[in-house]
Amino acid sequence: MQGSKAPAVRTVTHRRAIRKTLTPYLLLAPVIIFICCFMFWPIINVFILSMQNHIVTKPRSWGYAGFAHYIKIFTNDAVFVKSIYTTLRWVLVSVVFQCVLGFWLAYVLNKKFRGRGVSRALTLTPWAVAGVMVGIIWKLIMGETYGVFNDLLKRLGIISKNISWFSNPELATFSVVLANVWRGIPFFTLSYLAALSSIPEDLYESAKIDGASAPRTLFSITLPMIRDTIILTTLLRAIWTFNAVDLIISMTDGGPNRGTTTLALYIMTTFKNKMDYGYASALSVIATLFMMVFAFIYIKWGKLGKEGIN
Amino acid sequence: MGQVGEGGDQLMSRKMRTHLSNLVFRDIPLVLFLLFMLFPFYWILNTALKNSIDVISIPIQYFPRNPTLENFSGLVSLGFDRYFLNSLFVASFTTIIIMVLSLLGGYAMSRYRFKGRTVVYIMLLATQMLPAVVLMIPLFQIMNSLNLINNLWSLVIVCSCTNLAYCMLMMMGYYNSVPVSLEEAAQVDGCSLMGAVIRILIPTMIPAIVATGAYAFINAWNVYVYAIAFITDKKQYTLPLGLNAFQGEFGTDYGHLAAGCVVALIPVLVIFAFLQKRMAGGATAGAVKG
Amino acid sequence: MKKLLSVLLALCMLLSLVSVAAAEEGRKTVSLWYHSGDAITDAYYMNVFEQLNKSQDKYTFEYTSFAFKDFQEKFQMAVTTDTMPDVVSLGFSNITAFTAQDSLLELSDELLAQVENYAKVDVGLTTNLRNIAGGVLYGIPFAYNQEVAYVNTAFLAEKGEEAPRTQKEYLALCEKYADADNGTYFTTLRGVRPYDSMLAWLFTYTDGAGFGGAWFDEEGKCILSRPEFVEAMDVYANIYKNKWCSGDSVNNNYNEICAEFDSGVAAYLVHNSSSNTNHANALGADNFKAITVLANEEGHYFASGLQPNVFSIPKSSNPDHDYSGAIVLMNELLSTEVDGGLCEALGRVPCNTEVEQEEWYKNSDLMMLCAGYLTDSNYYQILNPYWLPDFSNLITTDMTADFQALLLGEITAEECMTKWAETIDEYQAEYLAEQAN
């Protein structure tokens, strides 16, 4: 048995060595071609436009601007600075809560219980609700005078009179984050369910035999095994949340007093209302660079690709 | 959800204590959490059954006092059946394209260390990071020159492009968590690489495929920013655009909006209901043994 | 899997069948893009277009509408790619954005002569339009909204009060009936995009500083930073700070203030005439009425001037383009039946003066009220400087943020008004410099 294995291994490795050079490129070719065809020009265009003066309503001022926009962003834009803090708060709080609660839900839905199928189908719906609707329904729920959230709190005796959930930037941030967390949990749950399923049962069995408690199993076996998924989902979700503006527009329109204006929303209003394509493009480039740097640091810190139990 | 008791020879009080602590620390928070997840969905349904006056009436109606199905029946005359089919078209084809490409690409990213891997990484992340609003005009120009404006294929293409990165990286992550030993064992047993992948690897990754496919489907189902840009003709509207029409210049039609939203949710719910079994499962159990 | 594939195939076939439109032989297609679609408008215009297509065989008229919040970017993209339709509708505040890009056709006198129904349009409206475009007319008005106040008459009757006519009476009622503990108030306040109601208050309180509704004094400086305006703003902001309106008000847009009025939380609302039907549905036609906006001690009242929606013709990049189809369509849309029908359905004030002879118009209290504004010598139009291309952006983004900051106590009224006045002065200087070139 052993003897016949050796030549087979050598053949497999040898085949892999040749394939190694070509296969990944072949596999990735359709992806690369597809993306390059359609996304290449738009992305380049953003960079080009960021160095131009292009206010749509002022055609006479169009022309090359060099780095003027970038300089202005970093030296003379209070809204930009404010939006950085707002964005960090928005992304961090949303993603952390979505991640933790999403994992909890996945953990629960992974076990066998009656009505699991229905629970799974239902609890994953928030993610599927149309973006414009999430904002509208949560605004109806959180409204001060006609909102059911206040009504419930009053009935439960937690508050005695209506609270206005949008009356200052902190509360407004709470409201939009709440809606965003609600919307984002199912994404994590679904990803974690898939990841949890790939953990071999025998690992749990041997842990049980060794007498490990549930929390111990969780932290020593479950989480490390799905570390790649955790890192990727949180990273991708952070990027997505960074760019998500539909919810904020529906609920607070970036207010009050720009208290919920994230960088992405600032880009959008610069583009749409101010019609300053050059400046908006420069802001987008900055935003992208921020995210790139963050992504690389995060991936390195999370040691993507080197997961597993030692 | 019951956890197995710790053996029959334990004292009664400890069993009760476990049950009690389970109740307080696990079951009650869980019920509250599930209520939190489901309540807004219930509220959408509630709103859909109310006429416009009752939506904002005080005292708040937890059940519609004058329930009406008019919001739903009104949808058909507004063309929602067509929007539904259009959305289905876009979502289905986007999912197919993305699944095929990300299965291949994710495998390459996961199993091979090749030159230019980092470049691919950067490229994929970059397509995700730029906000849609600045990409819209050049994409519109491209689609216009291809004569794809007012054609649903433009949406399919752009949805695929913008979601491909996510899905490919997610698939890469899932591939990473399946040990390479699975394929290698299969190859040792005489499978070709292709065969190993198809017959051994993919079946263990069904939940991953379902998750990624669901992600692509839902994103394409709800795509809004690009839909506004590319589709003008009402006959080619997708559901989010149809819902948009209920937000007028001087008033929002909450009832119809909620009804449209419920209708938009039904296929997703149905798909989830059918696929929920595939979302989890211990398919790798025992595969590596022996 | 097989089932899924066959369903998909069927879908493909169905969709390809469905997307093949029946081609009309020999007819020229003329399309209208309407900027603010909703269920009623769409249904109305679909009907109109169907009739139009049946009644003649030279043109095929097509109607497309957009949601109000999206139309600007759609129009903008069409301008950039030169795919604009034959006729568009625009709001008053959007015209400058498009004329700045030279994308609308100048409506010369020869062209206007071909539009018979143009003669029926009230001259005052077209004057306003010419004023923001340096004397040139770029669109023909068809409907506008008048800023009015709504009061809940049932509430007033119950409390034995009269509807407030002056700002003083209004403030007294606000204070008297503000009940923060129970969540009911006398008034609503709009915090998001507050410009029309806020400007009405400011100009009325200060009596326009004697300039009759203009934003600039005799030297061309913006008058908003004057002490009397600062005082007016302080009084207005205090309505929120004294909790005489809901806490949400700082974040309320038109939907929310109408919701507060419709649900009975507040009894007074400043909005425009278009929401009349909503209130009638919610409260019952007998329980509310529309009245003129508040007046000051001299009896004068100011509100944003006649700012109509217009139909315009996009300019084609081809200098020999044939605009006759567009002209025909525009003429049809401005006719008494079509214009009158639309205004009747939506509660807008028609610009076609012949519509004033129609029964529905004469019987409508709301229309009579709006018409009354025009003949009342106490009414002054606020001449908003929409000729400034940046003005639209200022009032939607910066003014909202600054007003909210003021309500939340983060800046003072003086800082706020000075900032606005300085910005307007800047824009005006820029505009005048452009004009000189």
Q: What does it look like?
A:
The complex is a heterotrimer of chains A (310), B (290) and C (437). Chain A has helices spanning 2-49, 68-75, 78-110, 116-123, 131-142, 148-155, 169-197, 201-209, 214-225, 227-243, 246-251, 263-272, 277-302, and strands spanning 52-53, 63-64. Chain A is built from 13 helices and two strands. The model of chain A is unreliable at 1-15 (pLDDT under 50). Chain A has a two-stranded antiparallel sheet. Chain A is mostly helical. In chain B, strands 1-2 form a two-stranded antiparallel ribbon. Chain B is mostly helical and 290 residues long. In chain B, helix 1 packs across helix 13. Chain B contains 13 helices and two strands, in the order ααααααααααααββα. By secondary structure, chain C is an alpha/beta fold. Chain C folds into two domains: 8-145 and 307-369, 3-Layer(aba) Sandwich (D-Maltodextrin-Binding Protein, domain 2), CATH 3.40.190; 147-305 and 385-436, D-Maltodextrin-Binding Protein, domain 2 (3-Layer(aba) Sandwich), CATH 3.40.190. Chain C has helices spanning 2-18, 39-55, 71-81, 95-99, 109-114, 123-131, 153-159, 167-177, 195-205, 227-241, 254-262, 276-283, 324-333, 336-346, 359-363, 365-375, 391-407, 413-436, and strands at 28-34, 59-65, 87-90, 139-144, 147-152, 268-272, 288-291, 301-304, 309-312, 349-350, 379-382. The relative contact order of chain C is 0.15. At the A-B interface, helix 1, helix 3, helix 4, helix 5 and helix 7 of A face helix 1, helix 4, helix 5, helix 6 and helix 7 of B.
Task: Describe the structure using short key phrases.
heterotrimer, A: about 300 residues, mainly alpha, two-stranded antiparallel sheet, 13 helices, 2 strands, globular, disordered N terminus, B: about 290 residues, flat, disordered C terminus
